[in-house]
Amino acid sequence: MRLSVKTNPPTTVRVVPPANSGRPTLELGRTPLDEVSGAQVGDTVVLENVERGIHDEELLEYGRPNELKLISKVYRAK
User: I need a labelling partner for 70 at 20 to 30 A (CA). Which of 12, 34, 47, 52 fits?
Assistant: First the structure.
């Protein structure tokens, strides 16, 4: 699966596979990301910005190989 991720403010993106998958966590970098490969159905996409207190998770519940998943989020100041 490919991911395009845009957030405001920017966040660090990582893909966490299910515990029983045997695959390591994948660090994708900071947003914006455009059509980055490496995620699979069942993985959790973690968006973090420690300075702003942002921690968000999105489970990839469905999809097909090479499908593009778009994640776009705007976080308000607390």
Answer: 52
**Full-model pTM:** 0.92
Size of the chain in residues: 78
Q: Is residue 77 part of a domain?
A: no
* Beta-carbon count within 10 A of 13 CB: 23
**What digits encode the pLDDT tens for the residues 2-22?**
999 999 999 999 999 999 999
β-bridge pairing 68-74 and 2-8: parallel
- Amino acid letter, residue 13: V
In a domain, 78, yes or no: no
DSSP 31: S
